[in-house]
Amino acid sequence: MGQGRPLPLDPPKQVFNNGFLAWSRDGRRVAAVWSSAYAASSIWIVDPSGHEPLRKLGALPITVHPRGITWTPDGSGVVITEQESISDIVMFDVER
Fold first, then answer.
1. Are 68 and 57 in contact (CB under 8 A)?
2. Which of 10, 16, 19, 71 could form a disulfide with 32 if both were Cys (CB 3.0 to 4.6 A apart)?
3. 31: phi then psi, degrees, rounded to nearest 5
4. Which domain range does residue 61 map to?
5. pTM of the predicted model, to two decimals?
6. Would you say residue 6 lies in a domain?
């Protein structure tokens, strides 16, 4: 039997999905969808400069699978498209 190193069996760490990121028009914030095979997805606002902490806007039911994210034209909210049994659009207020 070959020699090797043990592989960790921990579940994967949180990951912002590639393709589910959107820069704000002013370039100061990024809206991101976080998802995991083991938990419900959630929507986050990220300061790419690192000066502000990550801010969670909300969690989605585990049955919801986000398909995209974008900012509203005025920058006060983010909109996601979601797919359950039917497609839907949901808006989150960023300013609150």
1. no
2. 16
3. -95, 135
4. 15-93
5. 0.69
6. no
